[in-house]
Structure formats: C-alpha cells, structure tokens
Design brief:
homodimer, 8 helices, 60s Ribosomal Protein L30, Chain: A, alpha+beta
Chain lengths: 351, 351
C-alpha cells in the first residue's frame, strides 16, 4: 500500500547548450543526438539502460495487453502534476484496466520550437518518477520538433505493453444483470484541478489532480477476486457518464446509478456548481470503475478501502436488464433521469 | 517480389455529420464515439475486427522488436503519398531494421480543429492500404483534438511490434573492419519530393517520395544471409551522413564512403544543386543501409537487385579501423573529406 509521492526533489538540470528547444533538435543530426545523449537519456535512464535508436528488443510470452494514448493536456503544468506523469500514468492505467501488469513503454515527444529546456527537464523528471512508481521501463522513443505556432509546447505519446494477470478475465461480455458498479474514489477531481488553472477561469481551490497509477490497487483485486471482476475502466475524457454509456452500448445492458452514492469532494461539487458542470461528465485520472459480480461487491469495496488509492471506494449502481443501452440515474431529489453520453465538448484538452 | 501500388482507388467517404474536425471529436463523448464508429473504424477495420477501446490483447512469444515514431510531416499530402502511409511505412521499416517481422501497430492521432473530413478520409485510406501492403494490423488507437492554431492539421504516432526473424542478429557490436556498406536504392528522393511542394519553394519535378515498406526485401535477405547482415538502418531524418555517423560513434569504427558509388537520380542531383543541399543529408524513406560481412557483400547486392525495391542496390563504402568514430568520403574529384553529422536543421518536418 503505497502513497503517492509527487514532491520528491528533482535532479538538477544538466548544463545544456540551448535554453529552449530549436528546430534543429528534430533534425536527426547533431542537435538531436545531443538532445538525446545529454538531456533526455540523462533524465530517464541509467547509463547501462539507454534505449536503442530504432527499436528495442523484448522477450515476452503469453497473453499481453497493448495500448496507446497521446496527451495534449493544457496547461502542461497543473496542481499536483504535469503532462509527463499524466502520460505515464495514463498508459499504465489503460494496461491495468485490461487486467495487465504494466511493464514496457515507448515514449514519443512532439515539441514546439521555443519550449524552455527547464520546463522540459521538469517534465522528464516527472516521467522518471512516475515510471519508478509504476515499475515500468521506457525502452524506446522518438522526438520531433515543430515550428512555433504549429504545436503547443509539448505533446506526448506513450504506448504500453503488459502481461495479462493470470486470473484476469476482463471482458464486457461477462457483464450480467445484477452486477454492481464500483467506483474507487471521488469523481471529477482531475478535470476541476485542470480547470482551476485555465486561462480565463480563476477560482480559489486547493484541489490537485488525482492522476496516479492504478495497477497497484487493481492487481491485488484481481489476485483475490479473479474473474468475479467482469470489467475495469478508467473514466477519463467524457467522465463516468460517457464511460458507462459506452459499456451499456457494447454490452447491451442497462446501468442504474444512485446519485446519492456518488462520491464527490465538497470542493469539486462547489466548483462544478459555479461553472455549471455535471461531475458525471468531468474527466478523472486517478479512479477506476469496476463492474463486478453482485455477491462479491461489498467484499471488494472493503478490500479496496484498505488501499490508499481506494479509501473512498463505493458501489454507485448496478447492471439492469431493462433500459438496455442506457444509463439511468436515481436522482437524490427523487425521480429518475437518463444520463446520456457527453454531447459536444465540455472541457477540451483535459488529458 | 511486389511492386508498390500507390494509386488503388479509395473507398468513397461515408456520409458524416461534420465536414471538418471539431473539438467535440476529442471529448470522449458522443462525437468521439461517432467519429470512431462511423468514420475511423469504418475506414480501417472490417466489422469483426474493431479494436477495443482501452487496449488490445495479443498472444506473443519469443523475442519481439518494439518501436515508436511520431509523424509531423509538412505538407501532409505530397507527391506519391501522405502522412498516413508514411506513418505506417515508417514504423514497419523501423521493425524491419531490427530484423523483425512487422505484425501489430497502434495508431494515435492528434487532430487540429478544422481538418477537413475528406482529407482525413484520404489519410485513413492510405493507412489502410499501407497496412495491407505490409501485412500489419492496427489493434488499438487514440484520437485527440487540439484547438485551431495549436497543432498542424494532423500528427500521427504509430508504435509497432514484430517478431524477430529467427536468423537475424542485428547488433552494432557485430560490425567489423572490412565490412561493406550497402545502400538499397537512390539517395534523397523523399526529402526532395517533400521540398518540391513546400510553400515558398517551387521547382519543376516529377519526383515522388520513395516511401514504402521495406520488410519484404529485408526479410528475404535475412532468410538467405542470416547473421552476415550485421546492421540495418533506414537513413531518414539527417540522411545517410547522420545515420552512418551514429553507427561510427556507437561502434567505434570508421566508415569510408566512395562518392562516385552513391546512387542519386539526376533529378534529385539537380534539385540539390539548385537548393544548395548535400544529398547525403537529405531524408530518405524507402531505402535502407546494410552493414554486411565483406565476403558476402557482392552476392547480397545481386540478391537485392532482383527485388523491385532494391534494383539500384550498391556497395557505397566500407568499415575501417582508422578514423574511428568518423565517416570519410573519397571525393569524386579526388581527395577525401570528413562527412560530419548534420548540424543545425536543414529541412524541418520531413517525416
């Protein structure tokens, strides 16, 4: 049971002959070579572990999960994290949601000319720390540079490989009416933390992103409950509402949510009210949804609550035979309403 | 022995309720769902093969190669191809250069608000055709959207996995003095084709990119010559000069090139003279360098020439004990000169 440590001191930046990224850093020539050798590899790797240029070699066997994500979050630094640890945690979590043990990542940067090297260093430090926390290795990468005005400081792609847990059987076809929907923690924290520092919006809050790696809470759950965990999903873009709608569509079941059960921090609730946002649609990064066998649901909640990342775990609803393809909410004030998939764009570039 | 077919007719674009990309297509909600379901998946996949949302499952065993690349080429359409087939071929070739059989790709888009759907459709069609030609499958993906002015129409990341050929032993530590350097075809074609359509530059040429998948020429070479192929590299950004310099640095050998042996099309030579470019530094996409055992070099060249993609294969130099860490050129006009790694940025965003 490990707590997140987001504030371990960073290594000092090495002396480097540019204070910002220039186009030549993407040339494939000397400047690229130096950027890799004296900056990126220096931040990320021990000398013995520097990745090969065109690819890496892996020895693997058995069932693997494979997943990719590009990160374009704006701003790139936000309370509790930055685009670097977000990019690592995001792909680590997608692997965990496949029931896999995260192992190996690729890392690809699209840098905008003019990005400050000290900002890039800070991001690289976060990447390294997030990799250490999730026990994953970056084995291959790529760095491109685009002209000023043709990007937005930094975009990151991470693609991951992990070995599927031997007891995992994560498959939406396993979902049954009666299954319970568990959420591992409070909703909407990441989205509101990002919004709190968006240009043009300012409101007082001490909120930090909940971005964290989830493999260390998910894998013990699979160890103990195996195939009674029917589906795992992290409700990032589009929030819990959109993720549950997707599940209903693909599994042709209904889901009934209980509004009064939804865990939401007071500060998040206040910000959502002020901004006119429904927390069901706001992005999350540090929580997951589990659709689980009815008989084990309460035991799983108790199990998750023993973990630092699952202290607020709770059953928020159940799978139904009626309303197939739909999410329906039992409202706190009585009555019920259909919860649609997010339409339009509520919060662009939240991850 | 297959020829490239770049001009097979495209499927007609489906009716779609937007004629350009909007921010909502990256929301994770309904518009994202529709973009995937009715557009991207429609272009790329048969109904039975649609990729899962958070990741894919693979059954693999043995030694695998793993490689990633982000593509930011400008312009996104150019003579003989576009960013779509370039992104597939680029990662297929990185796998081939590892001596691996390309199998599985992830595909991640960063779209700029305002990209025309008909352009995106054309790119998706090229992706599909390039995947078919290279016999690789896209199994997982991601789509993000950034505001107008924060990207440049479309950036693509592809990350690939392939099984290492059982006879391959690609490792720079295998390089020996006396080894020959083979290039599989003429230099600088891709870079000059891109430049010919760059804004602000216009010169008459019928040149097309040489971008193509190289696994179907590389794998038979490994079948026949196995570990006598010591190293394979595709000289993309930074050109042949930068790639050979990297090899010299990492292997602590010298390389002696013979200028008169370098294959360069007349049209490329003319364009390079006009623009003041050295073809040794211009990017390539459809050729590879092989460092091979001296005694087999001539036989390999004859073997490559039987393949459509290797018709112009030739020995261009050899590995030397002296000049360790350096590439030296025997100039056509007599004398010799050191060929440095590309310094600065000759041609931004060529791939």
């Amino acid at each position: 049971m490990t707590a997140r440590s987001k504030f371990t001191p960073s290594c000092p930046m090495p002396t480097f002959d540019h204070d910002m990224v220039v186009l030549g850093h993407g040339s494939g020539g000397l400047l690229t070579y130096r950027l890799l050798d004296q900056f990126i590899f220096k931040a990320l790797h021990d000398d013995a572990e520097r990745p090969a240029h065109d690819g890496a070699f892996l020895d693997v066997s058995g069932e693997m999960a494979f997943t990719t994500d590009s990160f374009v979050v704006d701003p790139i630094f936000f309370p509790g994290g930055n685009i670097g640890d977000l990019a690592i945690n995001g792909t680590v979590n997608d692997l965990a949601m496949c029931g896999a043990i995260p192992q190996t990542l690729s890392l690809s940067f699209i840098l905008e000319e003019g990005l400050l090297m000290k900002e890039f260093w800070e991001i690289l430090q976060s990447i390294k720390q997030a990799c250490e926390a999730a026990e994953v290795k970056i084995v291959t990468g790529d760095t491109k540079v685009v002209e000023k005005g043709k990007g937005d400081r930094i975009f990151i792609n991470t693609t991951g490989l992990g070995k599927v847990h031997p007891k995992a059987n994560i498959d939406s076809s396993n979902i049954q009416p009666g299954d319970r929907v568990i959420v591992s923690g409070p909703l909407a924290t990441h989205g509101i933390a990002i919004l709190s520092v968006r240009e043009g919006l300012s409101f007082e809050t001490n909120l930090e992103t909940d971005s964290t790696s989830l493999h260390d809470i998910v894998l013990p759950l699979l160890d103990k409950y195996g195939s009674d965990v029917h589906l795992l999903r992290d409700p990032t873009r589009g929030g819990v509402a959109s993720t549950l709608n997707e599940i209903c569509r693909s599994s042709k079941v209904g889901i009934r949510l209980v509004e009064s059960a939804l865990p939401i921090e007071n500060e998040v609730k206040g910000a959502c009210e002020m901004l006119g946002l429904d927390p069901l649609y706001v992005a999350n990064e540090g929580i997951f949804l589990a659709i689980v066998k009815e008989q084990q649901a309460e035991s799983m909640v108790q199990f998750l609550r023993k973990h630092d990342k699952g202290r607020r775990a709770v059953v928020i609803g159940q799978v139904t035979e009626d309303d197939a393809g739909r999410v329906v909410l039992n409202a706190a004030i009585g009555g019920k309403r259909v919860v649609h998939m997010l339409t339009g764009e509520q919060l662009p570039r939240i991850c």
